Amino acid sequence: MNDLASTCVETSAPPAYGDLGRALAPLLEHLGEGCFYVYDDLRVAFLNAAARRDIAARGADPDGFPGEPLWNLLPYPPDWPARVAVEQAIRDRLPCYFTTLGTYGNYWVDIDVVPQEQGVLIYYRDVTPSHNLAGAQAASESALQATTARMQTLIDEAPLAVILLDPDLRIVHWNPASEAMFQWKAAEVVGRPLPTVPSDETQSFEANALRTLRGESLRAVPARRRRKDGVVLDVQISATAMRNAQDAITGIVVMISDVTAHRKLEAQLRMAQKMEAVGMLAGGVAHDFNNLLTAIKGFTSLLQMSVSPEDEAAEFLGEINKAADRAAALTAQLLAFSRRQLLRPEPIDLNARVRELERMLRLLLREDGNLVLDLDPALNKVQADPGQIEQVVLNLVVNARDALHDQDGGRVIIKTRNAELRDEFAHWGVQEAPGHYVRLDVIDNGIGMDRATQARIFDPFFTTKEPGHGTGLGLATVFGIVKQSNGYVWVESSPGEGASFTVYLPRASQAARTSESFATEHTGGGEIILLVEDEDAVRRVARRALELQGFRVVEASDGQTAVEWAEANHLDLLLTDVMMPRMSGTAVVSRIRQTKPGVKVLMMSGHSEELTRRGTLEPGTPFIKKPFTPAQLTQIVRDTLDAVPAD
User: Fold this and answer.
1) Pick from 506, 531, 565: which residue ends a domain?
2) pLDDT tens for residues 72-97?
3) Is 137 among the domain residues?
4) pLDDT value for 102
5) Nearest Cα to 619, choosing from 601, 607, 633?
6) What per-residue confidence (pLDDT) applies to 429?
7) What is the 3-state secondary structure (H, E, C) of 359-407?
8) Do 418 and 407 contact (CB within 8 A), yes or no?
9) Which domain holds residue 620?
10) What is the mean pLDDT of the chain?
11) What are phi and psi for residue 174, nearest 5 degrees?
12) Pair 630, 549 in one domain
């Protein structure tokens, strides 16, 4: 290979290129990379062996390209970046380097353009494998970024508080649900230790974090966490370790759900169950206790009739009666808070009831405080039992008096207003019956109470008084009466800022019930009364009381005996207990009325659970509650006999 001409002949190259060709041709011919020599006018001057092999492999004749324009050899469009770069290098006489797609297939080439005195050298090499690897890496990185973005979206849109912690338990990420739950913004907490752990929970938090960093997962662990405003929430926490590609633990993912409302509902359910259990016990005790009190009061009253008022025994009998009355009042409270007393609701003027109680209320307050009445003159009537509503007012005022503690400037305000309820109690988890109500507020400026006391204020037997100073039934009685009257009662208070008890009672319908006119004379005229009572003592005292007033009494200790006697005999009045074994009083009434449909009926009971819960007492049926005195019994018997039958 003495000159360029002989080399070109052997390698199918074009004729001699002058001094430049003779110098470069031997060097370029056997390079492993493809190489073109191109004149400044972009005509192809020379292709080395590697370039000619590549062209031949693609089905073209390499000998046909020398002397032809470069873009016939490399058919790139005018705006193709590789073509623009080559032309720019020739014009500016500056080298350049770039990677581009090949022109004869889906492959990638690296191209070096090196300007010379009479043209440029163009080197190229196939980099498809490495380019594909780089593309795969880029695709992998892109996919990873997409996955990370999706995970970020899931975390940020999750309804649970999701917190990412590093191994030092500092916050890495704090999602929007965490902001909503705990009130701290992400900018306030990221990079810092958790601010939500109360001091009494620190030890358990650190122990659980250590378990998680060792690879253990936690599921629904109960805990308490603090909000920015200081409120402590009941929560459930799940946590798991974060790991990298090498499976090393790099932090903790914490998911928190707020179960405060759920815990409150559970507490309300437990309270309801407790009230139900205590109420059943109270109802049973009250039933038996009232039977005993009926006998005690009855026989005491009968004895008083035969003892001179000047006799020392009369004083003793009076004390027995007072003790029995106090016991009866306590029994009534048991029935009230357990919502098992018989209510006789009617349209009543609440303002009038408060005014009637005003003198007594002022005596209750004594020097402890002033009483202020703020009564709405346009107040609607309420549908409630008059006696029970008076009990509500008295108990609330007594509670307010006890909260004053003889303080100077003590004041109790009784306020009445009309009200309409829609969903005012929704934030307490209570679904009230919407409609028109009458609102009663009893407000004091006493010592107030904290939240823990408020949570138990209506519990039976709960009291903040010293032992021996209160039964703990006053506010429980209020709660029972109001709930049984289809109303609502709430308390708002803070330590040192007094308390406000609010009662909502349903408004009465416009049609007021007309009262019946009964005779007041309670002596008998030989009327036959069938007395049905399973308690011997009650039966004896009732019979004696009625017979002393001129009534004729036939006793029956059970319902079946009463039914059999009534089928064969005349009677003017059926006086029966409600709750009896084997056959209840209402069943006795039903059986006897099959043969004597017009017979008058008077019911009595010391335990009215079935009456209030199942509605077994027909509307308008005369009723006397145990314990009663002989005078009370004979009066209502006389009234029942003299009542004009309803049309």
Assistant:
1) 506
2) 878 888 888 878 888 888 888 888 87
3) no
4) 65
5) 601
6) 47
7) HHHHHHHHHHCEEEEEECCCCCCEEECHHHHHHHHHHHHHHHHHHHCCC
8) no
9) 266-319+517-647
10) 78
11) -140, 105
12) yes
